[in-house]
Amino acid sequence: MTARVLDGKQLAQTMRVEIAAAVAARTAAGKRPPGLAVVLIGDNKASAAYVRNKQKGCAEVGMGSWLHHLPVHTSESHLLALLDTLNTDPAVHGILVQLPLPPQIREDAVIHAVGPRKDVDAFHPENVGLLAAGFPRFVPCTPHGVVHLLRRNDVPLAGREVVVVGRSNIVGKPLALLMMQKATTANPAGCDATVTVAHTRTPDLAAVCRRADVLVAAVGRAGLITPDMVKSGAAVVDVGTNPGAAGKLVGDVDPAVAGVAGALSPVPGGVGPMTITMLLANTLRAAELLDG
Ligand SMILES: NC(=O)C1=CN([C@@H]2O[C@H](COP(=O)(O)OP(=O)(O)OC[C@H]3O[C@@H](n4cnc5c(N)ncnc54)[C@H](OP(=O)(O)O)[C@@H]3O)[C@@H](O)[C@H]2O)C=CC1
Ligand SMILES: Nc1nc(=O)c2c([nH]1)NC[C@@H]1CN(c3ccc(C(=O)N[C@@H](CCC(=O)O)C(=O)O)cc3)C=[N+]21
Ligand SMILES: [Mg+2]
């Protein structure tokens, strides 16, 4: 078998056309274009590349975007003051502070300082709570991208065994929530799956992974998922983005898994572009909620 490719790059593009149409309709009606402020601290190369993709995405769909690139030694109070300004700026509908942060800045303080109505990452505890309760204001970008990638490729989820490897607040935990939740009108991203979450304390990772009809790797270890860990015909989603040889980006899934899986998302070209499209969708939603 050679796995069907879950092409995130193409789906992300298709969905951006839909978002661009919604943006154009708003501007034609005399409303402000949705705007995203991105804050990047320091000179991490990978972060700079993701941030560039975010800005390119905004331009593609007709949204405003501002990059606040701050030096690596920026103080926490300086960043909090900038966030205050962005929270009250009516042209800014979405705010994203690129993680990870340098050590002098507390992640927790920053997550609390982004106004929850502009928190397009959905990291603020108010938004985490709304998601956990089953009526999200914003659905977190990477998990939402994974769900769309599976749905639009007709991978069944309701009643299926889904295994998520990784339990971070950014990917694994919110994805497990979406996967287990009932699909409702308030929460169309709910998947009705039977969910297992694995992590570093899981004793037999291979045995747990082999149960999966849908296996999601969100770990950050190149090649962790090998063919012996995958049930024949399973759908495998690779969230990992790891530095590979010669500056190439590689996932958490060994490419040989394509010989066992029924479907597989590539890195690059899978979840990454979907994440950015979901960020654009959340910025549009923020504008709708803030400006009508
Ligand atoms: N494409 C995209 O849009 C995005 C990609 N990413 C990528 O996804 C990956 C994960 O990101 P993130 O969730 O932030 O990472 P974190 O480092 O925050 O979390 C990693 C998780 O993987 C678990 N883990 C680590 N090693 C193993 C192992 N050997 N076996 C089982 N579980 C393990 C950890 O377990 P424990 O909790 O026990 O430590 C932890 O829960 C990274 O490569 C990141 O770059 C992230 C965000 C968006
Ligand atoms: N506040 C915050 N929100 C985030 O959503 C966030 C973050 N911080 N910190 C880092 C992670 C990682 N992340 C990615 C986004 C896009 C690609 C992406 O576009 N990847 C492309 C290729 C990228 C390239 O060519 O380098 C692809 O996979 O095809 C990857 C990773 C968002 N994150
Ligand atoms: Mg992390």
Query: How would you describe the shape?
Result: globular
Give the radius of gyration: 19 Å
Which band does the percent of strand residues land in? Answer: 15-25%
The count of domains is 2
The helix tally amounts to: 9
**Lateral arrangement of strands in the main beta sheet:** 1-11-8-7-5-6
Family: Belongs to the tetrahydrofolate dehydrogenase/cyclohydrolase family.
Organism: Fimbriiglobus ruber
Domain Tetrahydrofolate dehydrogenase/cyclohydrolase NAD(P)-binding: 140-288
Subunit structure: Homodimer.
Could you give a quick summary of the protein structure above?
The protein is built from 9 helices and 11 strands. With 292 residues, it is an alpha/beta fold.
Could you explain how this protein is built, in words?
By secondary structure, this protein is of the alpha/beta class. It has two domains: 32-115, Leucine Dehydrogenase, chain A, domain 1 (Rossmann fold); 140-271, 3-Layer(aba) Sandwich (Rossmann fold). 39% of the residues lie in helices and 15% in strands. The protein contains nine helices and eleven strands. The chain has helices spanning 8-28, 45-61, 76-88, 107-113, 125-133, 141-151, 172-180, 205-210, 271-291; strands at 4-5, 35-41, 64-70, 94-97, 161-165, 194-198, 214-217, 235-238, 242-243, 249-250, 263-264. The strands form three sheets. It has a six-stranded parallel sheet. Strand 5, helix 7 and strand 6 form a beta-alpha-beta unit. Helix 6 packs across helix 7 (172-180) and helix 6 (141-151) crosses helix 9. The termini are far apart. The model has no long low-confidence stretch (mean pLDDT 97). The chain binds NADPH dihydro-nicotinamide-adenine-dinucleotide phosphate, 5,10-Methenyltetrahydrofolate (GUE) and magnesium ion. Residues 168, 170 line the site of magnesium ion.
